[in-house]
Amino acid sequence: MAIGVTNAPEKSKSSGSIINDPQVRGIFYQAITIIILAVLIYWTIQNTVENLQRANIASGYGFLNGRAGFDLGQSLIAFTSDSTYGRALVVGFVNTVLVAITGIITATIIGFIVGVGRLSHNWIIAKLSLAYVEVFRNIPPLLVIFFWYSGVLAILPQARDALALPLDIYVSNRGVAFPRAIFGEGSQYTLFALIIAVVASFVFARYARQRQEATGQRLPVLSIVLGLLIGLPLITFLATGAPLTFDIPIAGKFNLTGGSVVGPEFMSLFLALSFYTAAFIAEIVRAGIRGVSKGQTEAAHALGIRPRLTTRLVVVPQAMRIIIPPLTSQYLNLTKNSSLAVAVGYADLVAVGGTILNQTGQAIEVVSIWLIVYLSLSLATSLFMNWYNARMALVER
Question: pTM for this structure?
Fold first, then answer.
């Protein structure tokens, strides 16, 4: 007897409620968020415009063409009180970049030395490195700035009793005075030679690395690169008649005349940010080296590689893949902490902008310039470090 097989009735799809649909809810919540943000932005703009009109303050960036009427203590480009507000902001920007670049380089060098020192088998070096990290890492950077400005540089001798160092360098409470280079006619050829040497060094270093990866043979990269960077510009400099003279600082009865002077404001900010940030970089370096497997060091020693070469050629290159990401954050912190320069009167972007704001009342415009400049510097630093991090990453085969 055949048994008939009947198909079960298909389960009808329930339409359900629209409110219970996750996709609909997501769109609804996003729309509500956009509306709220739009209302807040509109209210902020309207409130700002009304306040500016009530205070009779004209908006816009036309004030940048006005006469500044104030002097700046340190400027890498020409500036007088007759210059415009726009040029004053350019001076502040250049000073900020100067502090950031010099501070990053110095902090990186000190941080690597202290970080490696913390792992030293020498008890004194390890404990001194530890003390350095714990001291600078646990005090605010503003106090470090005041320490260098008021506790170190301010107690140096006055200008008339300045400490004379070799190479006609004088140190006093007004800063460091040193000979100023004056380049004569034909000095541009030396600059061109230096640029060519840098490009040639980069090309040769890349070729040497590719050759080592292909054959295992190492070329004397360091000596050749130094020969290019020093020898080629030096030969060009001598061939063009050595077009260089120096303006030597002279100690007078009351002050130093001639030469160039790096003021105590810059020195205190530069030293404070460098030593403060170096403490954090030292911990990053220590953690990066600790992150490299001990077997890598043992394998290098088994191949007969000396300890110093093992650290430089085996451990550090692998540790850099761990070090670079957090190192980027410290570079960004140092750049942003440079805004503390206003505490010691250094003419950085924030200090110059604050003076302009007080004279013109253009708060919105000045603050927007601050935001744009610091955002641009941070993004540029991040892009460069991300590019470098990608180059240091392991290449999978």
Answer: 0.79
